[in-house]
Structure formats: C-alpha cells, structure tokens
Description:
2 copies of one chain form a homodimer. By secondary structure, chain A is α/β, with parallel strands linked by helices.
Amino acid sequence: MxxxxxxxxxxxxxxxxxxDYFGPLELFSVVGSSQIEIHTVAEQSGPVGAAIGxxxxxxxxxxxxxxxxxxxxxxxxxxxxxxxxxxxxxxxAMLDFLQSxxxxxxxxxxxxxxxxLLAKAGLLDGHRxxxxxxxxxxxxxxxxxxxxxxxxxxxxxGKFFTSSGVSAGMDMxxxxxxxxxxxxxxxxxxxxxEYTWHRDANSDPFAAELNVLAKQLGMV
Amino acid sequence: MxxxxxxxxxxxxxxxxxxDYFGPLELFSVVGSSQIEIHTVAEQSGPVGAAIGxxxxxxxxxxxxxxxxxxxxxxxxxxxxxxxxxxxxxxxAMLDFLQSxxxxxxxxxxxxxxxxLLAKAGLLDGHRxxxxxxxxxxxxxxxxxxxxxxxxxxxxxGKFFTSSGVSAGMDMxxxxxxxxxxxxxxxxxxxxxEYTWHRDANSDPFAAELNVLAKQLGMV
Lengths: 220, 220
C-alpha cells in the first residue's frame, strides 16, 4: 500500500442520484483522509444539482472542486447513476473524461446506471458488470460486449467494480474498503455508520422483486 | 393530507455527516416533489462543507439555498449529526433557528448527534428521544429532562423523530414516509433505492456492539 492517500475522483453531473454518490463517499470518508482523499469533479467546476426521484427535477446542489479539464489523474473513480445518466450518455465530454481517467486509474467504480456510462465509453467490453435491475436495459443497450450480470448486488472484475441500484453502492464500497484496507477497517466503517453490510455480492434481493414489478408493468 | 407539498428544511452546518443528510433526502426525494419539496438551509446561504469521518476535516460542499434569516417557516425540519455538532452546540444562531422553526413545524427530525442540538435548544424536554450510541453522552449531557432511549433505531414522540447514528436516519425516514403517505409509498421508496428497511424502531443491533466497543476503550 502506498504511503500516500488514494486519490478518489467522485464524478458529478446534473441529475446524479444523491445516495449513489454520498453512500459510498460516507464510507470512504470514514476510512480517514490519510488513506483516501475525496475530490469532487464535473464537466464544469461549481454547483451541480442532484436528481429528485425519477422526475428529472433538480434537488440539492453539490460543488465540483475540479472541472474535467483541470482534474488530476485520480487513483479511483466513482461514477453515480441517476436520471441525468440519459443526458450524459450523449455527452462526449463525460465519455472522454471516463476514458482518459480509466487509462491510469487503479480502480473504476460505478453505482446504479453509472455502469451505463462506463459501458458507453467502451470501458466494460470484455468484462463482467452489473447495474440497476429496474432499468437494466439502460446499461445493457450500451454494449453487447459486456457480460451483464442480471442478479448481483455488485460485480468485481479487474479494476472495475459496478453495483446494482442506489443502496447497493454502499455494500460495494465496503467490499472495496475490505480489499484495499482489510476486513477490520471495512467492519469499522460499517459499524461507525450503523450500516448492516450485505457482504454477499451475489445475493441480490431486489433483482427478483424488480423483475416482477417490471412484468406487471408490461416492461419486459 | 394537504394538496400542497410538505416543505422540508434540511439543515446544514460545517462538519455535517454526509449520510445523515443525504440518506433521508434520497428517500424523501423518491416520494416526489409534488408531495415533499426539499430545501437546504444553513446559518449563511452558500457552500457548507461535510465532515470527513471524525477528524474534523471538511469534505464535499453542499449549497444552502436559504440562510437562517431568510428561510420560510418549514413544515418539517431535518437536523443531521456529524463532528460539527460540537461547534453548533455553542452557536446561538443555530439554537435560535431550531427553536423558532420548531414552534410552527409539524415535524422535527434528527439523525445521530442532531438530537443533541434539539436537546440543547430545549425542544426535547419532556419527550422520549435517542441519538448515536457511540457518542451518546454528547446528546444526554444537553438535557436531563429528556427521556433518553438507550436502545432504539429511532424514536417517535409527538412531532419529534430522532434516530440513532448515520444509516438509522434512513429507517426513520421510511417510518416518516409511511406515517405521512402510507406503507405502499414507503415500500416503494425502499425498493426504488434497493434499501433493506429495518422496520422495527426498537431493534438496535448497534447499541450492544457499540457499548462493548466503548467498554473496551474505557469510555464507559
């Protein structure tokens, strides 16, 4: 392990999902800034509004410290999902940023529909990955060269960690903390935040439930 | 139920805990802005930095839309905890704001050490309430006229909802959503966010664990 803190670039875009972003950042923050330094980054520095549900409305605004253009090379990327993903899939600046950062990053992580952005950028081709099952097609339609996993709380493959929807990002983050800093640190982070850690990456209680919902709605 | 959306004032201060704040806001946001409108408020409007663990370092910055002075009367208050609580306990502007808003608010809610601020403001006297068990004394030393509950995921008493540490705020928020909008809406919010809802307010898996930890460290 490096004596320097791991530099985490947490990507913001208009309509990001609040818990996709702040669940992982909470857990990474608990590890301590001597181990992980958190940086916020967006296409432009300054305020970026969160999604409000699936309505496309904009909620609380978080400040991006870096723009894509002036960001350093990060050791780890965090890409959240949210209703704004659909716009970002057509944003070359976002896709270019993910491609260029991923060349040198040790770890590239996503929550929910964040994996659709990684897939659209071509980064997941040849890899196993997952996404939010409720809107799984948003991810899977970005690339047929990805081995999309239909039931997983999160998937680890090489440098890539991709999680299912929203809260699943917290379980994935604890798995990353365990991998990088050991079980005791991950258990401390879960305990500190009074979070009941779902440790089994393959157990996905919401996949079945959401498939039933989708069928009822005639979506599949 | 009013035809107008419930106006939620979510209080920020330097060193607030990220998940205390954004866990509840995520769940409230899923209900939809036609039911709940989220507003950010701090002593001064503009950027407010989150806590990084317990170090007193400052992390991502969130924008307060309102200052205490120009905020409207909210229907519901959300008061997060975090390492910045200790400073706010000595901040008359914070205590005055909580007192004046609580006079008219229908619901006053806190996560983690947020209940210490409510207690210091005298709002919980004669009420049952809880807080983060790891640092329980920060809350209990603010008032001996509060019936402090040592093992509870959250406590509801009149207009007050107070929760245990960090993630417990999400379980409390789902209970509030259930109370205001019904079980189906709360279950939808949990499912949408793939969150395993701990529905039993009296079940506090972390209280015992944290007491053991505190004893090991000679804290109690």
